[in-house]
Amino acid sequence: MIVAFSVAPAAADPDAGMSAAVAEAVRVVRESGLPNETNAMFTLVEGEWDEVMAVVRRATEAVAAVSPRTSLVLKADIRPGHTGMLRGKVDRVERRLAGR
């Protein structure tokens, strides 16, 4: 499964904005060892249901530790038996764009 999620404090720290809290969430994801990618809007993580959801929970808890209210947006592509899709989906689109 691939999960795209965004977690952020509902109220930003006036000195650090949201970036300090979001950086802690991204650190949790990167330290998980699961395939992941972060862009301007979401962090994507790939793995089995329980391990991915555990990472999302820990990332959310990292933000909640510095904010009394936390926002979480999550989208999941649940496709049992398929791995390597984080990169594979993009590669297929790129091949089509290149005319192959």
From TrEMBL:
<dbReference type="Pfam" id="PF01910">
    <property type="entry name" value="Thiamine_BP"/>
</dbReference>
<comment type="similarity">
    <text>Belongs to the UPF0045 family.</text>
</comment>
<feature type="domain" description="Thiamine-binding protein">
    <location>
        <begin position="3"/>
        <end position="94"/>
    </location>
</feature>
<dbReference type="InterPro" id="IPR051614">
    <property type="entry name" value="UPF0045_domain"/>
</dbReference>
<dbReference type="InterPro" id="IPR029756">
    <property type="entry name" value="MTH1187/YkoF-like"/>
</dbReference>
<dbReference type="InterPro" id="IPR002767">
    <property type="entry name" value="Thiamine_BP"/>
</dbReference>
<dbReference type="GO" id="GO:0005829">
    <property type="term" value="C:cytosol"/>
</dbReference>
<protein>
    <recommendedName>
        <fullName>Thiamine-binding protein domain-containing protein</fullName>
    </recommendedName>
</protein>
